[in-house]
Design brief:
The protein has 19 helices and 17 strands. By secondary structure, it is an alpha/beta fold. Helix 7 packs across helix 9.
Length: 489
Amino acid sequence: MESLPIFFRMADRQVLLVGDGEPARAKLRLLLKTPAKIKWVLSDPELADAARADFAGTPSLVISVIGAGRITAGDLEGMSLIYGAYGEAGPDQHLAALARRAGIPINIVDRPDLCDFTTPAIVDRSPLLVAISTGGAAPVFGRRLRAMIERLLPQGIGHLVGRAGAFRGRLAEILPSQGARRRFWDRLFDSTNPQHLVGLDEPAFTRHLEDLAHEAMSEQKRGHVQLVGAGPGDPELLTLKAQRALQQADVILYDHLVSPAVLDFARRDAEFIAVGKRRGDHGKGQPHIHDLMVRHARAGRHVVRLKSGDPLIFGRAGEEIAALRALDIEVELVPGITALSGSAATAQIPLTHRDHASAITLVTGQVRAGSSLDWRALAGPDRTLAIYMGLNTAPNITAALLADGIAPQLPVAVIENGTRPDERRFYGPLRDLPDLVTRHAIKSPALILIGAVVPLARDWSQNRSASSSPEFHDPVAAALSVATLALAG
């Protein structure tokens, strides 16, 4: 984020606008919507006379004439912002240099290299404002996006926001607690159609809000916990329900595998607590995580336990649910897209296939001491095996599979950072699995897929190891061969 989006108060401010043409008039129309005092400097006396006629009776506007490039430092005194729209390199650069020396932020139309700030595309539902910026890179795209948002927001929404703002004083009398007031607003907009609120007259609107506030005051405040699946990493794969949970949470306990882009959906004033484990760092133990959830929920907070993928798959959700139920703390599950589904989708590996896999098995590579798995029952040419957290135990897993009679040439995929921008995929035969992990320095999070569906991956031929090609029946190549023969016949 190269620019910080902020809203600049314009009351009791002076703005200098310089330029003769339509770009200057466009900026003027925007500035006249604010309470600022505007000094518009034109270089052409005839255009200045026309402007005075067009904007006669506008007390906040003063129009003057100064030749292009002849503005001096004295003309900038008392200004808070400057807009330049000469459209000529020399005068624009002269104005920008004066502004820099005076320490006044300046915007030069169509010259992002001379700008301290840019004016976003604006959806105006005052007091509700939506600002969209492309940093000057693609203004047309910003305008298109503004048009889309214009269609989404009803015209009356601004009036609704203004009425809600006017109710804040009364609400503070009913609900002194800031947290209670925030929950009231969440409840209001979650439970009431905004269009219905827009249609209420002033007394009915106030009664509706007062009734909700008194209901909130009379209810005993109880905290609760949501176990939320963050998905495999791509923030676009976060569910709508998970987004809503993050935006309403008071406390977020998150694992280190959760993508920072997912955390960006959360409330900025929520408390973020990292509780995940890393290799060589066990983080906060499971009993401590239970204690954090219980302690914050008992304090009346909305707690989100955010887990990568889906909380019900190797996420220890069962233990956390049991701990919360034992203490009569409300718990809700919000499922997420699994690492398996997300990674297979980006690689375009069908997890089931009529010809190659009629079953899927998910196992963890972190098997408890003393436990054993029947690998022959888990893997084979007619099923797909997905191994979570198996990088460190890849040699043991490979040895166990081979010892149980699994074919050494059975295809394997190792997918690192599935669905994320830095995703990597490597393929080979089962016997090469440990070598794939070490040779390519694969790091967690990574998923191992084993089965006859793996060669259906879109990049199987580019990223497989050399030893995988001659020994395994490639279903894609076979299908192409059959199709070629059929056409030839």
